[in-house]
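User: Can you predict the 3D structure for this chain?
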Amino acid sequence: MEPRAKSAGRPWLDGKTSSAGFTLVELMISTAVLLFVVAGVLSFFLSFTEAGLRMGFYSELESQNQQLYQEISQDLRDAETVLWVDAKTLVLSSKGIQTTYTYDSSSKTLTREETGGPSEVIAGDLSEFSFLAYDLNGNSIDLTSNLQAASENTKMVGLEGLATKSHPGVVDSTASVQSAVYMLRNKGNTSP
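Assistant: Here is the predicted structure, written as structure tokens:
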């Protein structure tokens, strides 16, 4: 057999196998593996970022709820009279000062307004909210009818609702608004 002639300028045709470089198949496989690794790292990063955002939102909601409880508890304990407008509006009177709490479902806020003072938002992001009324014996009072009798018989008040924080691309963070039942210490003891 005759030796083959070398191709000038084309080493791949001279019959020798070159060990320098990678084949196309090797490059495709390594690129696919690299893409899977990058996708996994990116997925982990996005999940970690979303969890951080949700935890931050939840922390904000819990802090807001604690401030709400502190704000309203003192007014409820000091109240001498209670007037129910509905389950979303409560008017308290103490030492000649009227304080009105109103939940606005369209703006998802709870506001507090003292006689002659400005209305201030004390809680936002409330997707649901209502007041609960109880008599001296702890029986629930209906706030959908006969509000005058409800106002006279209320001796304890509670709060319930749901605070929700939303952000595009992130699952909503929610925190329950569920207070203790506050005793109206300065309100006269009326029996149902």
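The mean pLDDT is 83. The longest strand covers residues 156-167.
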